[in-house]
Amino acid sequence: MATLYTYAESNIRKTWLYLTFFLFLIIGIGWLFSHIYQEQAILWFAVIFSILTSISSYWYSDKIVLAMAKAKPIEKEDNPELYRIVENLCIAAGLSLPKIYIIEETQPNAFATGRDAKHAVVAVTRGLLNKLEKVELEGVLGHELSHIGNKDMLLQTIVVILVGIVAMLSNFFLRISFWGRGRRNSRGSGGNILALLGIVAAILAPIAAALIQLAVSRKREFLADASGALLTRYPEGLARALEKISADPSPLIIANNSTAHLFIASPFRGRQSKSWFTKLFLTHPPVEERIKALREMSI
């Protein structure tokens, strides 16, 4: 039986494996495009532009997300029990106390955001507070605090930068190819084949980048499950919470595709296909797999 420690280490290794592959993908695409057009400026412009836009998003992402979720800040006197749970878990995790927000929605759900541990935010819905038992609420909050402790916001920003670089490179290449520069600069059958490979890579690379981004997101959810269970020392609490959250039919009115990946479970309701192909495009691992993994772990 796997322990929470070995499970967490396995997910960390897989995350770094995905990121390493991602970097090689970008280097390969950059080399191919630059080689076809003999212009390094294309690569450098894409890198700089993606980094600048992603950093600005990273710096202000918490404010944007909280506004989109219509979340309201609360003080300790507004919900002393919630504050006590968060304070105790923060002490166990060695984290600063994050700001706590409430979303007035009936669906039980929660997310964490913020650019670092000192500027972190945990937001929970009213439905989560009303429908979960204390041990289940502790499991959810432990999961969200683990995202903060594991620096997942920073990691996701890095991944977004990498995805942005791939998208920019592919977009530039296709535009230049459409204008005909590739045919002028790549003469002969060898050059034409290389240009054709470049067009294929420009089309497929953003899809591959998005799949890697989703794979990293799913692994970080598994890691937060394991890390959260280590905080509470009770994996069953989170497993039961995930069962209740996924089974609850209440819609989340503020749910949208741009913030769905932040929540502990997908805010969209309805039956989803369980095929391997569909799973490639999920922001979260299937809840059944997460619950199974938690119940098979030992402390």
From TrEMBL:
GO terms for biological process: proteolysis. Its EC number is 3.4.24.-. It is found in: Cell membrane. Residues 78-297 form the Peptidase M48 domain. CDD domains: M48B_Htpx_like. It is an enzyme of class 3 (hydrolase). Binds 1 zinc ion per subunit. Its main location: membrane. It comes from the Bacteria. Zn(2+) binds at residues 143, 147, 221. The keyword NADP does not apply. Keywords: Cell membrane, Hydrolase, Membrane, Metal-binding, Metalloprotease, Protease, Transmembrane, Transmembrane helix, Zinc. The active site is at residue 144. InterPro entries: HtpX_protease (IPR050083), Pept_M48_protease_HtpX (IPR022919), Peptidase_M48 (IPR001915). GO terms for molecular function: metalloendopeptidase activity; zinc ion binding. It is a multi-pass membrane protein. GO terms for cellular component: plasma membrane. The chain crosses the membrane at residues 15-34, 41-60, 153-174, 194-216. Belongs to the peptidase M48B family. This is Protease HtpX homolog. It comes from Candidatus Nealsonbacteria bacterium CG23_combo_of_CG06-09_8_20_14_all_36_125. The gene is htpX.
